[in-house]
Design brief:
The protein is mainly β. The protein has three helices and nine strands.
Length: 193
């Protein structure tokens, strides 16, 4: 019985071993493939664009500058400075959670403070009755000036690298022309993982 088993294992081993060779990678040609040579030309003149209504019906038009350079896009979604009528509320954390309902005026920022002694992260969510309300978590600041972040959306998880008192502000997006005025709810959870 042992001999049959050994013979079987030997046959399986012999037939399962295939001559798998390592794939060979050959070096590519130096230079540009002739099929793509026209794409590499740097001083290629801009072709005239036919702007007739018939051709623009289902096509998107991209305007190109004369010198063919790309300009960096400025990030217009920036942190909003605190308003003159800014309110500051203290969130009392109980069993790792806190919540508060507040009424906001148009153009007003609201600041909330909370104390974190041992948590590693904080989860913050704001919700209004109108789901499309123009409000967001504007900025989170820590006990040290170097700890800050933002802007965020309506929900975020922020890492708390040190112990102490943290502040976060709620405001409108500056890119949205319609400021929000009304009630909204702030929820906060401290996380230890």
């Amino acid at each position: 019985m042992k001999r049959i088993f050994i013979a079987f294992i030997s046959l399986v081993t012999l037939f399962s071993c295939e001559n798998k060779s390592t794939p060979t990678i050959y070096p590519s040609k130096i230079g540009v493939d002739p099929a793509y040579a026209d794409l590499v030309k740097k001083d290629k003149p801009i072709e005239s664009i036919d702007l007739s209504e018939k051709k623009l019906k289902n096509k998107k038009v991209v305007k190109v500058s004369k010198n063919n350079t790309l300009k960096p896009v400025e990030n217009i979604d920036k942190i909003v400075a605190l308003s003159a009528d800014n309110t500051t509320d203290i969130l009392t954390v109980s069993y790792g959670k806190a919540s508060k309902e507040i009424t906001k005026n148009a153009g007003q920022t609201n600041t909330f403070t909370f104390n974190s002694d041992s948590a590693k992260k904080v989860w913050i969510k704001i919700s209004a009755q109108d789901t499309l309300a123009n409000i967001r978590i504007n900025e989170v600041k820590g006990p040290i000036d170097s700890i800050h972040g933002g802007p965020f959306g309506k929900e975020t998880t922020f890492v708390l690298p040190s112990r102490g008192e943290y502040k976060f502000s709620i405001s409108e997006k500056p890119t949205n022309p319609k400021p929000y005025a009304g009630k909204y709810k702030v929820e906060l959870k401290l996380l230890w993982k």
